[in-house]
Write a structure and sequence with these properties.
Length: 211
């Protein structure tokens, strides 16, 4: 699937950043690590460790900011001591870092809060990492997992019935908010600095492996 992380700007125009296979990348790592479900995988991960591996979640290529269909998923830093819990922590971080790259490609809009939609809304543990990485409060709304489909249906209704967007496109009630944790943000900033070196270091390898 495609995970879309977008920010609507005021007035008459929008910008959108797309991260491919965000939540599904986490699902894939959970399956490969031998968990029965993603819910089980993220239930008791514990605190991240300095020697946790890094994970690039480009299992279906990437759009923003690299626009590279040849990019692929990567674990870096595996050792004999790496646990499957460490793999899941890396997967969650990698998705958060990729979404943050997309947010920065939008120019890091000056907003206080972001609404979370899509498959990531169901993954416990992603919210605090994403809030800390972005430095923004996250808002979860009722029906957020299906927000993309609901939005498409509303656009179709507007086109067919001529209804006004302000009367039809109202946000659902807030069910949860997650504020950024300063200590977590500091730890993640160091890991993200290393993570951001993965794509330029591996671009040639991706191209050579691409069919």
């Amino acid at each position: 699937g495609v995970h879309t992380f977008c920010h609507a700007l005021p007035k008459t125009w929008h910008r959108m950043s797309v991260t491919l296979s965000a939540a599904s990348a986490i699902d894939s790592v959970a399956r490969l690590a031998g968990f029965s479900s993603t819910t089980e995988a993220v239930a008791n991960l514990g605190e991240g460790q300095p020697d946790d591996p890094l994970f690039a979640p480009w299992l279906s290529g990437e759009r923003t900011p690299h626009n590279d269909p040849s990019a692929s998923g990567v674990f870096v830093g595996l050792t004999h001591a790496t646990t499957r819990e460490a793999l899941m922590r890396a997967a969650l971080e990698g998705v958060a870092f990729a979404l943050a790259d997309g947010f920065e490609a939008l120019g890091s809009p000056q907003v206080e809060a972001l609404t979370v939609v899509g498959g990531g809304t169901r993954i416990t543990g992603l919210g605090p990492l994403l809030a800390a990485t972005l430095g923004r409060r996250l808002v979860y709304r009722d029906g957020g997992e299906a927000a993309a489909a609901l939005g498409a249906a509303r656009l179709a209704r507007m086109a067919l019935a001529g209804e006004a967007s302000l009367s039809l496109c109202r946000p659902g009630p807030i069910v949860q908010e997650v504020d950024p944790d300063g200590g977590l943000a500091e730890r993640l900033a160091r890991r993200r600095a290393a993570w951001r070196g993965l794509y330029p270091a591996l671009t040639r390898t991706f191209q050579e492996l691409s069919p």
